[in-house]
Structures are given as C-alpha cells and as structure tokens.
Amino acid sequence: MTKNNNRIQRISQEIHKKLAIILQREVQDPRIFMATVSDVEVSYDLAYVKVFITFLHDSDPNVVKVGLQALHAAAGFIRKLIGKAMRLRVIPKLNFFYDNTLSESIRISTLINEIIKNDEKRRITSCNI
C-alpha cells in the first residue's frame, strides 16, 4: 500500500468517527433519529466523501427517504463541524447514501430459514409415507 493510500484510509477512519459523534450529539433534527454511520469512502483527491447510513426503523421506506433528505439539508452544518474537529486543508463535501446491506442480509437469512423449515417438513412427510 502506498503512503497516499494509507493517508486516505486514516482520514476515512477519522471522518467515520467524527461523523458518528456529530450525528449522535450535535445534530438535533428528529428526522435523523438513530442514524448510524456504517461506512465512509473518501475520494482520492479528498474532495468528496460518500457516507453510508443506516436507520433504526429502516423497514419503513419513508423513514429512510425523510432521513436522507434531512441529512442532505444538514450536510453544510455537519461539514462545518468536521472542519472544526479535523485539521484538513480541504474539507470534503458530504454525500449521504442509505446502506441497505443489514436489512438485505436479514431478509436473506429469513428466506434461508424458511427454506430449511420447508425442506425439513417435506423430509418428514416423505419419510412417513
């Protein structure tokens, strides 16, 4: 790994920590209730950051939509707080995205469990015949 990639990775981790704290303590918008930063990707030139967010009640698509709108509206304020917390020459622009990997993994796990139960039921009924 090159020196520049290590720097980008360290900056990414630090932005991840600072964003989590800012969302928990500083942002008082009720539409962003229980938002969690799941991942942060910093561009190579440090100009942009992709922030992947999950929400507590993300089974409701309206919660996700409203939460992302509120985060986009508060992006300037959050960016200003990151600038105060970190010593960077350029404070990157924040882009928020919904991270659905957790909800998708739960859905897939539920489907697999249902298939296993159905398969066991078929085995039991075929053995009894």
Summary, kept brief:
With 129 residues, the protein is an alpha+beta fold. It has helices spanning 3-26, 61-73, 75-85, 101-128, and strands at residues 35-42, 48-55, 93-98. It is elongated, with a radius of gyration of 21 Å.
Verbal overview:
The protein is of the alpha+beta class. The chain folds into 2 domains: 3-98, K homology (KH) domain (GMP Synthetase, Chain A, domain 3), CATH 3.30.300.20; 100-129. The protein has 4 helices and 3 strands. A 3-stranded mixed beta sheet has the order 1-2-3, with helices on one face. Helix 1 (3-26) crosses helix 3. The longest helix has 28 residues, at 101-128. It is elongated and about 75 Å long. The termini are far apart. The model has no long low-confidence stretch (mean pLDDT 88).
CATH superfamily of the largest domain: K homology (KH) domain
Task: Write the CATH architecture name of the largest domain.
Answer: 2-Layer Sandwich
Q: Could you tell me the number of beta strands?
A: 3
Rg is 21 Å
Query: Would you list the SSEs in sequence order as H and E?
Result: HEEHHEH
Beta fraction: 15-25%
End-to-end Cα distance: 62 Å
